[in-house]
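Q: Hi! First time doing this. I have a protein sequence and I read that you can turn it into a structure. Is that right? Here it is:
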Amino acid sequence: MSRKLYTLLSLVLIVSFALTACGAPAPTQAPAAKAPAATQAPAATEAPAATEAPAATEASGEKVTINWWHISTADNFKAEWQKEADDYMAAHPNVDIQITVLENEAFKTKLTTVMQSGEPPDLFQSWGGGVMNEYANAGLLRDITPELDADGGAWRNTFASGALGVYSYKDKNYGVPWDMGMIGFWYNKELFAKAGIDAPPTTWTEFLDDVKKLKAAGITPIALGEGDKWPGMHMWAYLVTRLGGKDNFQGALLRTGSFTDPPFIEAGKKLQDLIALQPFQDGFLGATYGDEATAMGNGKAAMELMGQWAPSVEKDNSENKQGIGDKLGFFAFPMVEGGKGDINDAVGGGNGIAVGKNAPDEAVDFLKFLTSSDHQATLAKMGLAIPVVKGGEAGLTDPLMIQLQKTFAAAQYFQLYYDQALPPAMGSVINDSTQGIFAGTLTPEQAAQAIEDSAAQELQQ
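A: Yes, that's right. Below is the predicted 3D structure, encoded as structure tokens:
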């Protein structure tokens, strides 16, 4: 095992919050008012058509044990996962699926230990990104690309391509998603109407114009908990994504490019243009994410840029515990004129399952079974996931989640949260650096250089 991986595994215990601070709350419990735990996922303007699940492979007949670790501790979720395992074992009598259920932090601790020993579980919770990539580099994961591409890509083609890409590294897949969501703007329709705004903005110029209109109407345009750093980071990351697209980020990640390339710096300048309009509530630099959600839930701000968990957290933090109800709307981050990123590119994250290096073929076959459209629809009906498989969206009933899923499903490129896509130490530097832009203590160039300096240390190939 490489020294770099050993160090990273040890640090997971210290920096585990960085792996979950920007994801949707894990569907094991109600979202917390503070930083949510990691999770969720789906883009075309119409819901994708259902497709047949790929045929299960024939059982070998030999006795096989599959060890599966997950973190879904809520009773209804545990029961559903157990039912799916029982159904599979009934159809494959030679297979014994041993499930270990662990609380989030306990899971990370135990996984660190087994990874250091070189003996990962066959299937286990993953959020993709930086830590998964390190495991792949160390040879601790099984490449399931051949199974995804078999039969003309039958299994691969059931997934929203952007969501599946989160679990790939250097063109190889080491896991699959089962739940995914995205960051977008949640807005107060009533406050927009009071400011004379008829429809959500679709371009960055329109967005800035709407901020000015809201300010002129005496309305706080954007709630922001920048004391927690990661909420504001999403604005910079989205601007980078719109300006540079997939190739820009992949170049910096794989070291054929740099985090000082033009899109990273230009994103900081665009962010400065927004900050200059003073669009945030008083004290935003010291405010928490909970403060941000409270402002939205009580109707004191017109917008927040946040993940799919936002409506429930807004409700929980509002005075009446109901939030703003049907006044709440959603729109995707606007396109940036002249940018190379596609308007449908999404930033977000979610839950998935990675495959350990010694996993038997039956474990991969069970993973196909778990990610069928029927099972995805069941999780959606139970409110436990936003589907990533075509046809699974049939289980959604919340209009806002349906809109978010359609928006995500159209994304050909899905940018995982920066503080999950990159090593934890880099995520901390990015959060600190972007906060420096918000505070006016760092220029866009200085922020980008700080991130590049961290990358030079953390992304050594």
